[in-house]
Fold each of these.
Amino acid sequence: MPEELGYSQQYYTQRTAHLVEVITDEGVTGWGECFGPGNVALANKGIVEKVIQPMVLGMNPMDRDVIWHKVYNLLRDHGQKGMSMQSLSGVDIALWDIVGKVMGQPISNLIGGRFRENVPSYGYGMMLRREAPDDLAARFVDEAAEIRAMGFAATKMKLGHGPKVDVQLAQAVRKGVGEDFPFMADANHAYTTSDAFYVGRALDELEAYWFEEPIAPEDLDGYAELRKGLKTNIAGGEAEFNRWGWRSLLESRGLDIAQPEVCALGGISEYLRVLALCHAHFTPVINHVWGSAIAVATNLQLLAAMPPMPGGLHPWEPMLEFDTTENKFRDNLLEQPLNIQKQVKASGGRVSIPTGPGLGVAPDRDFIAHYKWDA
Ligand code: CA
């Protein structure tokens, strides 16, 4: 990366992406992606290749749900959440890509059809830096204004320098975007419930749109207390997995907005079940999006096919999450790039959904060969 960036848990200087290619004997190839950076991706690569591959080799890729349950049932004793599910996610997405290519249809059509041909996108930035609070706040004022000027529908900042500084940073972002523009704040589960209330009250005053992962994802009661006590929407769920994890999360009523991560929770097959659970609880969904152009394309297909909830003349709309910091694996991976920043600028913040079969995108093999990490 051109510069070190941070979120509440750590600083980082390198990007990785973990792509999965599933090859068939009929020559159709599918692509998927597993959530998980750096050494986590290396471990997940081991699970995909050494654990899942022998379980599914020789099966019919059209039987994606049969494959999903075979793998999950055999891995249940070894990890119902976390890296085993991240690994299964990438395989499942690649199978859906194969099915789409065989049927000659985009995944959105296989799911049930496209409710929209494009989606609004929010641009996140305002990552943490090792700077004095006043300097970082000044930077956030400018960066927030820049992201608004890029055309995004909303923006999101990181929190994580401690409650007092974080309030100062949130005030800076509000100043940068102006009074009439939505901004969100993401704590990446850095706070205790008490500190989350302190920051959340400031976000209430600033009329932030949502407060993301204020506390540890295991603390379901804490989420419910925050949701009852704060005006700002409580968002979260990127660190939750599969239908059973999401059932508990939704039943505890701690989320105003659910953020499922398709490349982690179990792939498209499981995402569809989690989406149904979210809608059964009348919890709106804005997918968590992280990673390469494969992850972005996967999410675009899902966002196209997301039913309005509850519906109306002016229905609540999902948004595409977009990281405004440099990411070669997103911007340069594809043979035909999505050019999201250009689309956003040209269309008032909206991004069109690819119409080709499967994911509707194809990675450039030379690019992959260049960045392949053989560890
Ligand atoms: Ca987040």
Note: Residues 186, 188, 212-213, 238 surround calcium ion (CB under 6 Å).
Amino acid sequence: MKIGIIGLGTVGFGVVEILTEQKERLEKQIGEEVVIKYGCSLEEVSLPENVIYTQDFHDVLNDDEVDVVVELIGGITIAKTIIIEALKKGKSVVTANKALIAHYGEEIFKEASLHHAKIYYEASVGGGIPVVVPAKEDLVANEILKIEGILNGTTNFILTLMETDNLDFDEALTIADGLGFVEADASLDLDGIDAAHKIYILAMNAFHSFFDFDKIQANGIRQVTKKDMDYAKKLGYRIKLIAQAKKLENGIGIDVSPTLISLKDMVANVNQAYNVVEITCNYLENVLFYGKGAGRYVTASAVVSDIIKTHQKDMWEHDYTHVNCIYPITFSKYYIRSHRALDIDYETYFSQDKDHIYITNEIELDELTHQLEGETYNLFKVRG
Ligand code: HSE
């Protein structure tokens, strides 16, 4: 496999790093060499030895040896030209470009079929969380009825900060911006456009339909005030920016909108810059995908997985190695309830009724049980 990466920003560099660090394992996975032949960017950057640096994307597209083009420049103009040209030459394309797929997916996929080329775009929604393939393939036994989720990490971070730190929208936005969370065009995040790009892509795959992106009504979080959040909480809700798509009898219902979600709902407890996608279908009912929706390695992880998929041999051959060394995982914190005070290292302790309750520091179970010899106690592992 010979790869040309066009766009060497945060994610592009993450892709170079993962492909370099994981080279041996990935090559074993597909049974052939994984070579980054080109790194293309307008700004001069330092790349690993043997990677050709170019400022001209035509060098990548015109090289017949390159069979995978990775488009990471973003935007919907030059990126579109690059992708269409690569597909026309029969190259596989991997992209994280949500805006491009949402606006021009129909045209791009037609071009891909025409030239028997493939385009992969898992990284365009939910960063590294696998959601596009599940919506497209893994739930095929089901009819997908609805998809909803928190698809924009920046606005989720702002809403979380407003609540936890008692800030108004502008104050929280300034902090999010300072941390580099907000897109160069802030409107994409704040007005729900980025979330609309992403729900378009999920709906397109879940409902096997193209439609006009411009028909999606997107409302962002600018109208959400601390006061609304407090009232919502009093009513048992939290305000989240929810992107939603569902099949209607006469079409597809789709929008992005600040929404009160019951505090009992798991989606209401997805905070900070995390994303969540909930798919409702007729047999499986509800399934949730949760994780980080942005960041260098997070997004690069999905891009690299797509790159490998372009040359994936049969995953169902199960040519795994048999491992004999199987052990229980015993290095942990432990919860202990005893009727006597114990002489152990602990992180938390209290006594109630006749019970002495401990959460230990992390310790090997053998060592702990040795310290507890002769005592009677109840013990469970503690996570976190
Ligand atoms: N601005 C986007 C977000 C980046 O906050 O989710 C990842 O797509």
Note: The pocket of L-homoserine is lined by residues 127, 152-154, 183, 189, 194, 293-294 (CB under 6 Å).
